[in-house]
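Thread: Newbie trying to understand structure tokens

Hi all, I'm a second-year student working on a class project, and my supervisor (Dr. K.) asked me to get a predicted structure for one chain before our next meeting. I've only ever worked with sequences, so writing a 3D structure as a token string is new to me. If someone could post the tokens and maybe explain what I'm looking at, I'd be very grateful. Here's the chain:
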Amino acid sequence: MLAAAVEFAREAAVAVGGDSVGEHAGLRGEEPAANGFVVTHAFAASMPGYRGWHWAVTVARALDAETVTVDEVVLLPGEGALLAPAWVPWNERVRPGDLGPGDLLPTHEDDVRLVPGYTDSGDPAVEAVAFELGVGRERVLSRGGREFAAERWYTGDRGPDTPMARQAPASCGTCGFFVGLAGALSAGFGVCANDVVDTDGQVVSVEFGCGAHSQVRAPSTPLADVAEVVYDDGEVSLER
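---
Reply by user tm_fold:
Sure, no problem. This is what the structure looks like when written as tokens:
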């Protein structure tokens, strides 16, 4: 009786989905209920943006009943259906560059990157300032927060494992334009102060490097009529 109730199920689907209800696409028997039987009929759905979805109409009959009733009508995805991506909390979706003028990006109270300023941060520079002022900042970087930053900087575009660093004549740690950081990160990182490179004002690893190292010197040329020697990717061109 439930399997034969195709038109009854279609009427229920049309009452919800209207003209988007298409051809009958099959049925399946559900687990028997304690007091009856349940079957779900599927109908193709033609709604824009719902490719691969179908209308599912669940019908039931009690053990002693002679009539069929509708349990529910829902729109369900099938194989190959176009689905929305899995939900990701907003704080995990934010990426560098997303924050604009006037935007606020709050931190969680249990953010593992931060610890209360009155605790031992493990950073001698932070502790010295807090002792001198008698207060310190409300929250400071935790050891884990420093490790997260160090790993991100070291493995990023300003770390040692990049084509620029591998071909550099020397490392940033020996460059006159290198301004070291204070505190626990000072041994591994600093800020570039060379305004002719794209790393100017950015954190770089002491093992990073580029062709604008302060020790690079232009070789002398015996050609008296050469006004300037221009270097580009190791190729030398002469401009008169």
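A couple of things are worth pointing out once you decode it. Confidence is low (pLDDT under 50) at residues 223-227. The chain is about 20% helix and 25% strand. Feel free to ask follow-ups in this thread.
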